[in-house]
Design goal:
2 domains, alpha/beta, Glucose Oxidase, domain 1, single chain, 538 residues
């Protein structure tokens, strides 16, 4: 396939973004533009030569570790980030409560192994909020091969005390393409041409099909059946990944398939239904066990899950701190990332990368003594993975929709009219390639000159497209301006997202330094404009 040279790509991107290289630069802190953007150069120098990004991320992910919402590690991380921000001189550093969310969970010990007819250890991980086993459980393994209610009845009376393989095997195919990916010249052109891209963006997906809904209903029915029959432990293959990658999130709760959504209390709710100990295993090992049973081999397994629920405080927190503004100090520019993570890895790319980036952004502004006109507020969110924790903050501080009226009515607070923009970072470890405008076309002429100093660093594309779901969603829902950067994918979707491989080794350090430079520049420019960033046109 024909590959454009980098020079050709830059020329095309310049044309598409409205002659980016000849656009007038925005003056920095009242100074006239120069041949090189002085503000950009100062930020680049500080970040490239004196960065603290990896020190922040290493402490967060390896010294503190995974940060499941409301776990002791999450609370430790929240306190540490607050203290760190205050130590850099940010004002009003505090932990803002929200919720109630529910109980935390801590894994204290785990082992899983096949013990007969021959021994092999399993690469596995308990699901979050799984209850403990009653000590070490050694039992026969039963595979549920069922696709209808009639199939389930074949297992009636034989699951009590057994270790159950609950779903069908997951196909594992060879990888003929690299698992890590940077956006190619052609792909970046599709972004810049405002094509709906990438084509597998879940935001563009339609409602579930009839078959998908049927599969969901039967899955719920099957799990409820296994619980009713008294299984000792439930085993499932990783929901994504292979080659030792385990994607693992929260334990399931048995509810009848027709239970309304608002009646299905999640596992972190102390009042949720009782459930069984559960863990996920690699696809290859799960498939091996299924094949052995299908060939008539009687398997035995030993499992020990020792976990503790943390129920002392059902409220969770967000970490909040500010760089006060000057003449426009009552107006706010926010930047944020979610502090919570899943538990199998250390939450490095999801979303320690974003937390460290936003912390490094405000550190850069403080270190360079860049005094903004508007107040810059950083928020490190709790509960993004399970409960959209930032929604509580948005509803309390800015507004919410009253959907009891027809049409629905937006009810805003006094803070709503003082809000300029929210910057979010939650797509892994790739460098910034440009900006998702998220349907807000009025941002395009503002951002063109702001990207000018960073074209040589690979960031030059503007697209009307939006990003995936994250904390920005709740700001956007009430029509507040949001900014999400286009990032290289690297191996976020293929390897690290919610997996045991979400660890520090997956971080691309130079990419994150580039991202910190651009984020600091954009946030500061937003705080210095005469006008707030515009809302979407109706």
């Amino acid at each position: 396939m024909f590959k454009r040279s980098i020079a050709s790509l830059l020329i095309v991107l310049v044309l598409i973004t409205g002659q980016l290289l000849t656009s007038n630069s925005v003056a920095n802190a009242g100074q006239q533009p120069t041949a090189k953007d002085d503000l950009a150069e100062r930020i680049k120098d500080e970040e490239m030569n004196r960065s603290q990004y990896m020190e922040i991320l290493s402490h967060l992910t390896e010294e503190i570790g995974p940060r499941l919402t409301n776990s002791p590690n999450f609370r430790k991380a929240a306190t540490w980030t607050k203290d760190q921000l205050a130590g850099w001189g940010l004002q009003n550093a505090h932990l803002e409560p929200w919720g109630p969310f529910g109980r935390g969970w801590t894994l204290q010990r785990f082992s899983a192994e096949v013990t007969a007819p021959n021994y092999f250890p399993l690469i596995a991980y308990p699901k979050a909020w799984s209850p403990s086993t009653k000590g070490e459980v050694t039992a026969d393994v039963v595979y549920i091969d069922a696709s209808t209610e009639a199939d389930l009845q074949k297992y009636k009376g034989i699951l009590k005390g057994k270790i159950v393989l609950a779903t069908r095997p997951r196909p594992v195919e060879a990888h003929f393409e690299a698992t890590a990916h940077r956006w190619s010249d052609e792909e970046m052109l599709k972004f810049a041409m405002d094509e709906p891209y990438p084509p597998d963006n879940p935001v563009l997906a339609g409602p579930p099909s009839t078959q998908q809904m049927g599969n969901f209903m039967f899955s719920a029915q099957r799990f409820a059946f296994i619980a009713q029959e008294g299984a000792a432990v439930v085993v499932t293959p990783t929901s994504a990944g292979d080659g030792g990658v385990i994607q693992v999130m929260s334990a399931a709760v048995p509810y009848p398939a027709d239970t309304p959504r608002d009646k299905r209390l999640p596992i972190w709710n102390p009042n949720s239904a009782q459930t069984m100990p559960q863990f996920s295993v690699t696809a290859e090992q799960y498939n091996r066990m299924v094949r052995m049973i299908q060939h008539g081999v009687a398997l035995k397994m030993s499992v020990n899950i020792t976990a503790q629920y943390n129920s002392e405080d059902l409220m969770s927190t967000h970490t909040i701190a500010e760089i006060p503004g000057t003449d426009l100090k009552d107006e706010v520019v926010m930047l944020g990332a979610h502090l919570d993570s899943w538990h199998a890895g250390t939450g490095a790319t999801d979303n320690g990368a974003g937390v460290a980036l936003m912390m490094e952004t405000v550190r850069l502004l403080q270190t360079l003594k860049l005094q903004p006109r508007r107040t810059i507020r950083i928020a490190l969110w709790g509960g993004e993975e399970e409960a959209a924790g930032s929604r509580y903050y948005v509803n309390q501080h800015f507004g919410r929709w009253d959907r009891t009226t027809s049409p629905p009515k937006l009810i805003t607070t006094p803070e709503y009219d003082k809000f300029s923009a929210y910057y979010n970072f939650d797509a892994g470890t790739g460098k910034i390639r440009g900006v998702f405008l998220g349907g807000n076309e009025s941002l395009r002429p503002i951002f063109r000159p702001w990207l000018k100093p960073f074209v040589s660093m690979g960031a030059g594309t503007l697209t009307i497209n939006g990003d995936w779901d994250s904390d920005f969603e709740w700001f956007d829902e009430i029509n507040l301006p949001i900014v999400n950067f286009i990032q290289d994918e690297i191996d976020y979707e293929t390897r690290t997202h919610h997996t045991n491989q979400d660890v520090l080794e997956r971080i691309q350090v130079d990419d994150m330094k580039q991202a910190a430079i651009i984020t600091a520049y954009f946030v500061y420019q937003t705080a210095m404009r005469d006008e707030k960033l515009p809302h979407k046109s109706n």
